[in-house]
Amino acid sequence: MLDADFFRRWMTATAASVEREADRLTALDSPIGDADHGSNLRRGFAAVTATLEKEAPDTPGGVLTLAGRQLISTVGGASGPLYGTLLRRTGKALGDASEVSEADFAAAFRTGIEAVTTLGGAAPGDKTMVDALLPAVDALGDGFAAARTAAEEGAVATTPLQARKGRASYLGERSIGHQDPGATSSALLVAALAEANGD
Amino acid sequence: MLDADFFRRWMTATAASVEREADRLTALDSPIGDADHGSNLRRGFAAVTATLEKEAPDTPGGVLTLAGRQLISTVGGASGPLYGTLLRRTGKALGDASEVSEADFAAAFRTGIEAVTTLGGAAPGDKTMVDALLPAVDALGDGFAAARTAAEEGAVATTPLQARKGRASYLGERSIGHQDPGATSSALLVAALAEANGD
Amino acid sequence: MKMLINVPETVVADALRGMAAAHPELTVDVDNRVIVRRDAPVEGKVALVSGGGSGHEPLHGGFVGPGMLSAACPGEVFTSPVPDQMLRAAAAVDSGAGVLFVVKNYTGDVLNFDMAAELAEDEGIRIAKVLVDDDVAVTDSLYTAGRRGTGATLFVEKIAGAAADEGQPLERVEATGRQVNENSRSFGVALSACSTPAKGSPTFDLPDGELELGVGIHGEPGRERRPMMTSGEIAEFAVDAILDDMSPRNPVLVLVNGMGATPLLELYGFNAEVQRVLTARGVAVARTLVGNYVTSLDMAGASVTLCQVDGELLRLWDAPVRTAGLRWGI
Amino acid sequence: MKMLINVPETVVADALRGMAAAHPELTVDVDNRVIVRRDAPVEGKVALVSGGGSGHEPLHGGFVGPGMLSAACPGEVFTSPVPDQMLRAAAAVDSGAGVLFVVKNYTGDVLNFDMAAELAEDEGIRIAKVLVDDDVAVTDSLYTAGRRGTGATLFVEKIAGAAADEGQPLERVEATGRQVNENSRSFGVALSACSTPAKGSPTFDLPDGELELGVGIHGEPGRERRPMMTSGEIAEFAVDAILDDMSPRNPVLVLVNGMGATPLLELYGFNAEVQRVLTARGVAVARTLVGNYVTSLDMAGASVTLCQVDGELLRLWDAPVRTAGLRWGI
Ligand SMILES: Nc1ncnc2c1ncn2[C@@H]1O[C@H](COP(=O)(O)OP(=O)(O)O)[C@@H](O)[C@H]1O
Ligand SMILES: Nc1ncnc2c1ncn2[C@@H]1O[C@H](COP(=O)(O)OP(=O)(O)O)[C@@H](O)[C@H]1O
Ligand SMILES: [Mg+2]
Ligand SMILES: [Mg+2]
Ligand SMILES: [Mg+2]
Ligand SMILES: [Mg+2]
Fold first, then answer.
1. Which of A78, A81, A93, A73 is nearest to A137 (CA)?
2. Cβ contacts of residue B125 below 8 Å, gap of 6+?
3. Which residues form the DhaK domain (chains C, D) (predicted)?
C-alpha cells in the first residue's frame, strides 16, 4: 500500500531530477519551442516540495491535489495547467483514503491523464507529454519499473513525430527529428515514481 | 606650369584611389572611429568628379574651389568641412590665373592647410590629416613624388600617436597603435597629385 | 550571450520594480506580478485584462492606461502567467461591468486564462474573452495549435480598449475585439534568433546569409529558412503572405513592428517597402505605426500586421490613449 | 551582419520615405533630407533645428513636432549632415524670431553647423546655438575633442523646445538650452558593438564575458574594457561616474536609455538598479524616462543621463509634446 509519505517522496524525487535535468529540458525546448520547459518545471516542483513541507497533507489524495494546485499557481505556460491538472485530478480520484493500493493509484493516474487529454486535446502521436504518460499508465500493472521504461521509450519515440499540439506544431515538418521536452519531463516524473518506491 | 586640366586630373585620380581604398579607410576608422571615413570620401569625391564634368571650370582656382564646395555639400562629418576647406582655400589662393607654377601651388596648398588647422584646431602630432598634409607641403619643393613619400610616411607615423582631435581622442590611450584614417586619405590625395603629374 | 541583468531568476521582478519607478501612473504589484491603472476600477466601465509571457515589451504592461488595458499580468519570460495573476488583476479592475480577457492564442495562455475565467466567475466577476490568432505563417488546422497571436494584439487592445472607455457594454467590447482580430493578419521574419535569460544563448542557429520566414515572437524558428533577402523582397513576401489570406476592401491599419534588435532606421526603411507593395497591390492605408511594440527580446527582424477597418474601427483606433507604450490624443 | 535593408547606399533615403508614410504630420523632404513640422514656420516663435548622423533614431527626426524640434537634418549613418541641409531647415522654419541650432559636440557636427550658421546669417536668419556635451566618459581637456553629446540632447531638445513653444525669445531659449546641458551628465556602456550598413560588420570585437564602459553612440569603443558585470554593478558604476562630476542639490530627470538592441525588459530592470543607487546616494528623482531614445544602431547596452532641474525646468519638461518619439499632454 502507498501512503502520503510515498507520494511526498514521489514529488521530492521529481523535484530533484527536474532540477538535475532542467538544462536538458530547456535545451530540448529550444529547437522546437521557446526554451523554457526546464526553468518552468524547476520553478514549479521547487514550489511543490516547499508547500508540501509547510502544509504536510496526510493523505495521498491531499498530497497530489496540493501539488497540482501549486503547479498551476507557479508554472504558467502549457505545462503548468497540464501537469497541475494531472496531479490534481489524480489526487481527487484518490479521495481521502490514508493509504491506496498500486491498482487504485493506476486507476487514478489514468483519470488524471484523461483530464490532460481533455484539457489539451492531444491524442497519442501528437508529440506531447501524453506520448510518455499513456504508455506508462498502461504498463503500471507490471510495476513502477515497467512504467518507467515505457515512459522513457514513449519519450524517445516522439523524435520522429510531427507535432500537432503546443508550440512545436507551428514548425510543421520542421518539428520532426526532435524529442519532445514535455514527454521527456513526463518520463522523469514516472521514473521518480519508481525511485520513490525504492526500485 | 599646371593648368585646369592638371587639377581636374588630380581630382579624378583622388576619386579613383579613394574608391579603391574605401574599405581600407573605413576599416581604419573602425577601431578608433565610427567606420565611415571610406564611404564619406567615396561619396564626396564621386560628387566632385561629377560636378567638375558638368561645370568644367577653366582655371586651377575654379576647379579646386568648386571641388571644395562640393565636398562641403556632400560629405558631412569632420572630413567634409576639413577637406572641403582645404581645397576651397587652396583654390581661392590660386585666384583666377589660367595656369599656376608648382611654387604657386605649394604656397596656395599651404594656405589651404593652414585653414584646416585654424578650422579644426589640430596641431602636428594630434593624429589627424594634418600629420600627412604638413610633411607633404614641406616636401613639395622637391617635387610631387617627394611630397607623396612624405605624406605616406606622415600617415604611417600617426600609428604610435595618441589622438587629441576628432573622435579618436575619446579613446584616450587606446587610440595608440592605430593609423589615422584621415592621415591615410590625405596620403592618397597627395599621391594622386603625383599621379596627375605623371610621376 | 551577455545581458543587462542581475540573475535570470529575477529578471521579471527587476523589470517590474523599474516600471514602478518610471510610471507613477501605474500600480505595480511586484510580488504578485500585476500592473494596474492607478484609477481602476473605473466606475461603470468594462475593464480589459491581458497578459502573457514577458519578453515582448512594451506588450502588455506598456499598454496599461486610459484607452487601452486596465491591467496586465506578466509571466516569466516567454511563459504564460498563472491563473492567480489574472484573477487578481480581474478583481482589481472590475467595476461590476465585467472584464474582457485579451488572450494570445498559445496553449499556455489559453489554458491559464480559461482557468482564471472559471475562478473569476466563481467570485461573481463577469468574464468575456477575445482570442487573438493573426499569424498567417501558421496554418489553422487540426494539425497545429492554431494560429499564433502576434501583432494584432496591439490592435485588439487599443480598439477594444477605446470601446470600453466609451462605456460600451461587455458584449459589444468583446464583439469589437473579435472583429478586430478577424480583420487582422500578420507575418514575421527573423534575421537572428533571440536569447532568453534562462537559456543564455540563442534559441536557434541562424547562419549569416540566411533568414527565417514566418517566425513567431518566442524565439521559435519559422516555417522556412531562405538565403538572405532585401528589405523590398521581404516586404513583398510578408505582404503577399497576408494578402493570400485576406482581401481588404476597406483601408487597413499597418503595423510595421520590430522584433527588438532591429534599428528604427531599418524599420522605417522596411515600412517604405511595405507601403510600396501595398500600393502596388491596391490596398489603401488608413494609418501606419512603426516601432518596437510586440517584441521578441533581442531578436533582429520585423513583422507586418494589417487590420482592415471601417469608419467605426478607425474612429476607435484614433481615440485618445495614454499608456507607456502608445500615446496620443491626451 | 544581416540587416533589414536594400543596399547600404539608400538606407537613409529609404528610412525617410518610410517616415513620410507613417507620419503625415511631418513634411519629409527625402531628396534634401530635411524633416519639418507641417505647421512650420510658427508665427512669432523661435524655431529649433537639430540633426546629426543617422543611426540614433528616434533622435532627431522622431523629436520633430509641437513642443520639441521644428526640423531635423539626418546625415548619413554616423556622419554629420552637411551645411546645405541645416540651411534649408532653418529657412523652412524661421518665422523671423530666429533659429536655435542644437548641436551634439562632435567635430563634424560642430564644423558643419558652424558653416550653416554663417550661411544662414548671410541670408538674414538669426541663429543661436547650444552645444550638447554631457558624456562624462570623455575628459573635457586639451587632449580630446571635448565631451561628446549623448543622452542630454533629448533633455535639451524637449526643454528648450517647450520654452520656444511658449514664445520665449531666442536669447532665453538659448540660455535655457545651455542650462539644461550644463545640468546634465551621461555615462554609457556597451555589451556589444554595432554594425553600420557601410561596414557590414561590428565596429569592434567584444568577446563574450566582457563589456565596454564609457562608450559613445557611434560604435566607438569606450574608455575601458572589463569582465562582464551585473545590472546592479553597472548601475553603480554609471551613476557614480556621473556623480563624480556633479552633485545635484535639486531633483533630477533620469533617462535610462537603450542603445538599440537591449530589450525593454532589461532596460526596466536596469532602471530599478539605477533608482536604487540614486536613492542610496541621496539623489532625489523628479521624473524617469526608460526606453530607446538615443540609440547606436543595433548596439546592446544602455546609458544613464541625469539632468538636475529646478521648478522652471521641470515645468518645461512636463509641458505638452507631440512627436513620433516622445509624446504627452496633447
Ligand atoms: N495541448 C497539449 N497537450 C498535451 N501536452 C502539451 C500540449 N501542448 C504542449 N504540451 C506539452 O508541453 C510541453 C511544453 O511545455 P512548456 O515549454 O513548459 O510550455 P510552453 O509551450 O508554454 O512554453 C510540450 O513539450 C508538450 O509536451
Ligand atoms: N579637428 C580636426 N582637425 C583635423 N583633422 C581632423 C580633425 N578631426 C578629425 N579629423 C580627421 O578626420 C578623420 C575622420 O574623418 P571622418 O571619419 O570622415 O569623419 P567623422 O570623424 O566625423 O566620422 C580623422 O581620421 C582625422 O584625420
Ligand atoms: Mg516552452
Ligand atoms: Mg568617421
Ligand atoms: Mg513558454
Ligand atoms: Mg562619422
1. A93
2. B131, B161, B164
3. 7-328
Domain housing A70: 2-196
Look up C218 and say whether it is catalytic. yes
Residue A50, sorted as left (phi over 0), alpha (psi -120 to 50) or beta, turns out to be alpha
Sheet of strand D224-227: strand arrangement: D224-227, D210-213, D184-190, D301-308, D252-258, D285-291
The answer to whether D254 and D305 have CB atoms below 8 angstroms apart is: yes
| Interface predicted TM-score (ipTM) | 0.95
Facing D4 at nearest CB: one of C262, C285, C328:
C262
- Report the amino acid identity of residue D115: M
Q: Is D60 a catalytic site residue?
A: no
CA atoms within 13 A on the CB side of C174: 14
Q: Which amino acid is at D149?
A: G
> Strands D224-227 and D210-213, how do they pair?
antiparallel
Which amino acid appears at position A8 of this protein? R
Q: Is residue D319 a contact partner of residue D61, using CB atoms and an 8 Å limit?
A: no
Grid look-up 472590475 returns: C94
Q: Kindly give the confidence (pLDDT) of every residue in chain C, 330 residues in length, as a single tens digit, with 9 standing for 90 and above.
A: 899 999 999 999 999 999 999 999 999 999 999 999 999 999 999 999 999 999 999 999 999 999 999 999 999 999 999 999 999 999 999 999 999 999 999 999 999 999 999 999 999 999 999 999 999 999 878 788 899 999 999 999 999 999 999 999 999 999 999 999 999 999 999 999 999 998 898 988 899 899 999 999 998 888 899 999 999 999 999 999 999 999 999 999 999 999 999 999 999 999 999 999 999 999 999 999 999 999 999 999 999 999 999 999 999 999 999 999 999 997
Distance from C-alpha of A196 to C-alpha of A99, rounded to nearest angstrom: 15
Q: Taking the CA atoms of D50, D56, D62 and D66 in sequence, report the sign of the dihedral they define.
A: negative
CB of C8 shorter than 6 A to ligand 1: no
Helix (H, G, I), strand (E, B) or coil at A180: coil
The rounded Å distance from CA C189 to ligand 2 centre is 38
C303 touching chain D per CB within 8 A? no
Q: pTM for this one?
A: 0.96
Q: Shortest CB distance from B166 goes to which of D145, D196, D216?
A: D145
Q: Alpha-carbon distance D109 to D117, whole Å?
A: 12
Question: In this structure, which long-range contacts are made by residues D223-226, counting pairs with CB atoms below 8 Å and at least 24 apart in sequence?
Answer: D223/B170, D223/B171, D223/B172, D223/B174, D223/D137, D223/D138
The answer to whether the peptide bond before residue D74 is cis (omega within 30 degrees of 0) is: no
Which residues line the pocket of ligand 2, CB cutoff 6 A?
B 29, 33-34, 36-37, 40, 77-79, 82, 120-122, 128-130, 165-167, 180-183; D 79-80, 107-108
Which residue is it, cell 489539451?
A120
Is any ligand 1 atom within 6 A of the Cβ of residue A78?
yes
Chain A (68-127) residues lying within 8 Å, Cβ to Cβ, of chain C: 72-82, 119-120
Which of D78, D140, D194 is most worth mutating to test chain B (most B CB atoms within 10 A of its CB)?
D78
State the CATH number of the domain containing residue B24.
1.25.40.340
3-state secondary structure at position B157: coil
The Cα of D62 is separated from the nearest Cα of chain B by a number of Å equal to: 21
- C-alpha grid cell for residue D229? 558585470
The answer to whether the CB atoms of B80 and D80 lie below 8 A apart is yes
How many domains does the structure of chain B reveal? 1
Asked whether B141 and B107 are in contact (CB, 8 A), the reply is no
Q: Tell me if C285 sits within 8 A of C231, measured CB to CB.
A: no
Contact between D63 and D11 (Cβ < 8 Å): no
Q: Which residues make Cβ contacts (< 8 Å) with residue B41, sequence separation at least 6?
A: B18, B22, B25, B75, B79, B83, B185
> In degrees to the nearest 10, what's the CA dihedral of D88, D92, D97, D98?
-20
